[in-house]
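Consider a concrete sample entry:
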Amino acid sequence: MPARTVLILQHVEVEKPGLILDALGGSGLDVDVRNLFERPGRALPPVADLAGLVVMGGPMNADDVTGYPELKLERDLLVDALRDELPTLGVCLGAQLLARAQGLAVRPGAELGQGSEVGWAALRDVDRDDPVVGPLADAPAVLHWHGDRIVPGPGTRVLARTATTDCQAFRAGPAAWGLQFHLEVTPGLLDDWLAEPSFAAEATAAHGPGAVERLRADARAVAPTLRPLAERSLAHLRSLCTARAEL
């Protein structure tokens, strides 16, 4: 029997899969959501046991494998996933780990003359032909929350940019995508983020007093347009996973 499990790896409890999990619902796929740091050292399943892989965001640096040894396990799994053409999605830190699995560099924004990118903003130069990122060309904004940047190589297929981030999304082979932004976030999930003191402090540092309220208001303003576009994007990932599982 083909594997039917989609593994979703979390690094922070509050950074849940949101719309990604919604997109996989009712598909017949089994979804295994794991917070890597709740049970450090737990082995990850081999690619042969998976129909798909999703790696979520987190505040860690993608190269801090000494401080966070689990990141090395993830990177190794992503290397195997790329080799096996496993349907794969990396979000924020997950995208950076996917980039490292491809041999690309990930650098702090300060080294590139850029600060943190926090808040709602539209994507630029979107590749409309891409089945995952293409629908987002018409999105009024997506949520950005990162400091480090992926440095694309000469052969990297960059799918979207913003003014301060040259690689907001990239294709890593026939079935893998990295998204630097947070397509999974709904207004309710963002409320959970901003209830955390560290997130609220980061938002205020980036945008000053009133940042938390503005971020919440922006989330509710863009949601009616963004959600159906995000669902179109994630439906393609779901279709790849179900095809691999022969569902």
User: Anything to note?
Assistant: The helical segments are 19-24, 70-84, 93-101, 187-194, 197-207, 211-245. DSSP finds six helices and eleven strands in the chain.
